[in-house]
Amino acid sequence: MRSEKKGCADLAVFGGEPAFTEKLHVGRPNIGNRNRLLERIDAVLSRRWLSNNGPLVQELEQRISEFIGVKYCVATCNGTLGLEIAIRAHGLSGEVIVPSFTFVATAHALQWLNITPVFCDVDRHTHNIDPRLIEQLITPRTTGIIGVHLWGRPCEVEKLADIAERHDLALIFDAAHAFGCSHQGRMVGSFGNLEVFSFHATKFFNSFEGGAIVTENGALAARARAMRDFGFDPQNDVSGVGTNGKMTEVCAAMGLTGLESLDEFIAANYSNYKQYHAELADLPGIRLPPYEGGEKSNYQYVVLEIDEAVTQIPRDQMLEVLHAENVLARRYFHPGCHRMEPYRSRLPDVGLRLPVTEMLAEQVLVLPTGTAVGADEVSGVCEIIRLLVAHGVEIRERLAGRQETRS
To answer: What domains are there in the chain, each with its CATH number?
Structure first.
């Protein structure tokens, strides 16, 4: 059951009952068949093979390779370490061009390896790195480009590949959002020199915590596999510097179980996305960036752009109202990597060349979805958002007045 919202007085932020008794989350974990998962975990315990490239990790790597249509998959303990290993396996150094409108791990993976992330602005409509702006950022120290398939919407991979080839640069994709998505009929994971997935608990497909590096390049895969295991090669000789990036068997058990329910997870996301789109598409000041027709998608993010000039209420005040209703919407990726440390101290004026990133960081709102959210919850969230837009000025002024009273 949920509490209906007919007017401003009904809003929880002004003393009404919250719309939902249970909090609605962005990225609440999807869980497949529990019995099958527990069977796999029980078998892991019986084998007493808990890590070190166990049979479930090997099976998961094979299944992911087949699903994407690539030769090699190297499972890792998380997506961030997978990205660091991919960067190091490719031998990147100096400077690498990345978007700022992404999770900070994309930039940190470079900085952690003493590589300078050079921030590029993103396309206004796709939110992905804008190929038209990359070449002006290339210097003699540039060794690569990292594109991010944001929201599961693939980058303009052909344009990025052309730039990388003409300038002899590595091309890596952070595909943390894009497992199960396709571009021109090819699955994400088959582009660039390497692609890296995240299977964190908040992703629609998760392995509790985990990630994977996928590639068609056997030499890169071999280097990544050795680096994942302290530098040990198949002959048990340490061939170079490595780290401990191995996925555990229990995490692989969760991954294999999730793969068996992948269609169910995507169907739930798609149903929610369609309903959100139907109920909010014509709302003034609210834009839902569309997914590309005819392609596979996981639909795991329901993204709104809030145009305050039209709604008359800023995104952050909308967020405050929604949170009071137990709708834990989130503002991704505020305020942009370039405004986080150490980057903001090093480049205090870089935002001047990132106008789209700065705008989106103030506009984007991501709504709850996934298997824990159904049609009634979506309707309730949309009801609140419609109320916010219909009474934007009143709600804004009441919230501002309440803040003045407190201060």
So the answer is: 8-27+261-329+368-406 (3.90.1150.10), 34-260 (3.40.640.10)
